[in-house]
Amino acid sequence: MPTDTAHTLDTSRTFWELVERRAALTPDRPVLLQEDRTLTFEELRAGAERTAAGLHAMGVRPGTVVAWQLPTRIETVVLAMALTRLGAIQSPIIPFYRDREVSFALHTSQAEFFAVPGTWRDFDHTAMAERISARGTFEAYAALPTGDPASLPAPPGSGTDVRWIYWTSGTTSDPKGVLHTDRSLIAGGSCLAHALHLSEADTGSIAFPFAHIGGPDYLVMLLLYGFPAVLFEKFALPDALEDYRKHGVTVAGGSTAFYSMFLAEQRKQPDTRLIPTLRLLAGGGAPKPPEIHHAVVREMGVKLTHGYGMTEVPMITMGSPDDTEENLATTEGRPPPGMEIRITNDEVRLRGEAVCAGYLNPSHTTEAFDDDGFLITGDLGHLTPTGHLVLTGRLKDVIIRKGENISAKEIEDLLHGHPAITDVAVIGLPDAKRGERVCAVIEQTTGTTPLTLADVTAHLRAEGLSPHKLPEQLEVVDALPRNETLRKVLKYRLRERYSGTVK
């Protein structure tokens, strides 16, 4: 029997209405901070209108598809809001993607214009656009197009038209174009605003690519609450700490990998607060082992709230600072108003305001939604009596050994508690006798004695793990392979690397 939980939320406003409303309420308050630059809410509105007028003169109209592959800069946000002012359909592309992924996105979406950063991090994006014959290419950072706002048509009035095309990671096949409306993205951002209880006194941070689905999520929160965020074009510690401290950041995060990086820096000077103003780490996008939560709270002296989201549904659940420590450590939080969660045969299914409108390819849409209109996530989990969601793994991440289902996440969570393990990924590998065997791939903590398979299994036995779930193979790596957005571990690369090994 399925179990459901649901709430309601009015998210009828468009993105541009949020921009105008916030500019009217607090015009002179800063919204974006980057190095020594500051942009106020009114400057964001006015700059976006001027850029919209320039785009309109170039031929951009409501419904025109405009792709952009830009790093996290103030100009990127201005361009994105200019496109919302026009009612264009924008297709953000992660700036680390190259010819194959970019060509697929541009041609599949039939983009008429393509904004690039020129040469960025020693890569010539303009030359790439020429190689793949991208139409209407322009370098956004040479100078954003500008014009007279008086020439603009009326802003779009509906928040339910498709205005955004985001791309899944495409780690095992071509990426899918995910269709979003202003309404669905505002609902996702509202989840953060609802759960985190922030105020105008806070200062946030965007340390991940703004082209990620989390970009507009976070911007919605700034527009709703009226506080600023520090932008990081390139995030690396300890270099980024200067800007966190200079701007007095109170809320930071991104994903589990970010928590681990902050924690590693804190451990270099355990008696000194890493960021004196910081009070909350928040993020999502990847599983969060309970031990990481407890270590952050214990050693950094801040709250840690974690959530659950995906490209198709930017924010599904979020932990709240007033949740119990047990719920914060072991669950993904609760759904916001407007999100309905159904658990069917242990699988998480979703319906509500923040769920995408489908995919560019109609066949993908048919496959992804059930007969009741719920998105089939492929994630496994259950709801607690208090309505908190616990994720137990992915269908693709279930290892079937001798007919028994084994959750990779359960083993990973236990191994994160080993003091000599910095990070871990557990995968299933083809095995002639067992069907699949359990392989643990670990990053070891610097300066610790090299671990053996016997050491790892002894730790898991002591933690109470059933013998049939114990790893039969151990691989130690300098660094787990990760993507460039939220630093998720790419397990498919590990499977490719170790599937030919025989143990």
UniProtKB/TrEMBL annotation:
Ranges of residues in domain AMP-binding enzyme C-terminal: 410-484
GO biological process: fatty acid metabolic process
Protein keywords: Ligase
Superkingdom of source: Bacteria
Keyword match Ligase: yes
Listed GO MF terms: medium-chain fatty acid-CoA ligase activity
Pfam families in UniProt: AMP-binding (PF00501), AMP-binding_C (PF13193)
Classification via InterPro entries: AMP-bd_C (IPR025110), AMP-bd_C_sf (IPR045851), AMP-binding_CS (IPR020845), AMP-dep_synth/lig_dom (IPR000873), ANL_N_sf (IPR042099)
Positions of the UniProt region annotated as Disordered: 317-338
AMP-dependent synthetase/ligase domain segment(s): 20-347
Family from the record: Belongs to the ATP-dependent AMP-binding enzyme family.
PANTHER family: ACYL-COA SYNTHETASE (PTHR43201), MEDIUM-CHAIN ACYL-COA LIGASE ACSF2, MITOCHONDRIAL (PTHR43201:SF5)
Protein name from the UniProt record: Cyclohexanecarboxylate-CoA ligase
Organism: Streptomyces dioscori
Lineage: Bacteria, Bacillati, Actinomycetota, Actinomycetes, Kitasatosporales
